[in-house]
Design brief:
It contains 7 helices and 4 strands, in the order H-E-H-E-H-E-H-H-H-H-E. By secondary structure, the chain is mainly alpha-helical. The chain has a two-stranded antiparallel ribbon with strand order 1-4. Strands 2-3 form a two-stranded antiparallel sheet. Helix 4 runs antiparallel to helix 5.
Length: about 160
């Protein structure tokens, strides 16, 4: 008679999942991080005399004297995307964790797969986001009304990691 008690291995495997989490977004300090932050939270840009001159020169537009701030609206794609897709990712984790532990799947393998899925869902959410719409000047400059897609670099630069 052989004992197939895998409980000690399952407990050890379960412990290896403890405290691990996935993160999806932008990690760093570069232009893409700044751009993602602006879209995620919005921002106010103070209008200066130099900016007024730039708008006249570049776009043929004279900003009104009463215009003191240009507002870029919040277009949350990480938080709102997680609100929409996160519960499904968590459900999938809860469905797979037991089998992963019993079958010796590493935490990194399971969490990496879930992080990659979450990243894809957030990128898709960002590509499909339509509101708030771009203003006419931005549409004219980009040639598109999709508020988060210009070159595609910001969305493609999204990353995931396991901590």
């Amino acid at each position: 008679m052989r004992d197939r008690n895998r409980l000690p291995q399952a407990i050890s495997a379960a412990d290896s999942f403890d405290g691990k989490r996935i993160r999806v977004g932008y990690f760093g300090e570069g232009f893409t991080q700044m751009l993602a932050d602006v879209h995620e939270f919005g921002c106010n840009i103070p209008v200066t005399d130099k900016m007024r001159g730039f708008f006249r020169y570049k776009f043929g537009i004279s900003l009104k004297n009463t215009t003191t701030v240009i507002r870029i609206p919040e277009r949350s794609f990480i938080r709102a995307g997680w609100d929409q897709h996160g519960p499904g990712i968590v459900r999938k984790y809860n469905q797979l964790i037991g089998a992963a532990i019993l079958n010796g799947v590493s935490p990194e393998a399971l969490l990496s797969a879930l992080a990659l899925e979450a990243q894809g869902k957030l990128q898709e959410f960002a590509r499909d986001l339509q509101a708030p719409a771009n203003v006419g000047l931005t549409v004219d400059q980009k040639g598109s009304s999709n508020p988060l897609v210009d070159s595609g670099n910001m969305i493609q630069s999204m990353e995931h990691k396991i901590e």
